[in-house]
Amino acid sequence: MTAPAHAIIGRVRKAHGIHGEVVVETITSAPEAIFASGRRVLAGTVEGDLTDQTLTVRGARDFKDGLIVDFEELADRNAADLWRDRYLLVPVDELVPPADDEVYFHDLVGMRVEHEDGANAGTVIELYELPQGLVLEMRRADGTDVLIPYRAGIVARVDEARRTIIITPPDGLLE
Question: Which pTM does this prediction carry?
Answer without folding.
Answer: 0.64
